[in-house]
Write a structure and sequence with these properties.
The protein is an all-beta fold and 112 residues long. It has no helices and seven strands. A hairpin with a 2-residue loop joins β3 (41-47) and β4.
């Protein structure tokens, strides 16, 4: 998913961002692109209401750009439009905030 814009004006635990994309039936690896910083929280990613990545931590002591986080295998059972939801779910014990600074979400076919 690209070419979308979502901004947390005042980042809070429990914030939600909902987007959608077309996916063909198959097996994918989910990649999250963004940056880490001392003000970042953790995010849960769900696809069609099912959590596919839980507690992905975007904290680091210093800003680190161009971070790519790969998560578990995702099986998509049918071709069509799917709803992707990001939910801020807590923070690292050292974090001072709940920002989720994602710049790109990718479902990469497992065969690639």
């Amino acid at each position: 998913m690209h070419a979308f814009y979502s901004r947390q004006s005042a980042a809070n635990n429990g914030d939600v961002s909902t987007n959608g994309c077309y996916l063909a039936a198959g097996t994918y690896t989910l990649y999250l692109y963004g940056y880490t910083a001392s003000t970042c929280g953790k995010v849960d990613v769900s696809l069609d209401g099912f959590i596919i990545a839980a507690g992905v931590d975007w904290y680091s002591a210093a800003i680190t750009k161009n971070v790519i986080k790969s998560t578990a295998t995702v099986v998509v059972n049918y071709s069509g439009w799917h709803v992707v939801k990001l939910t801020t779910n807590g923070q690292n014990g050292a974090s001072s905030g709940f920002a989720i600074p994602l710049t790109y979400i990718e479902f990469r076919p497992a065969a690639d």
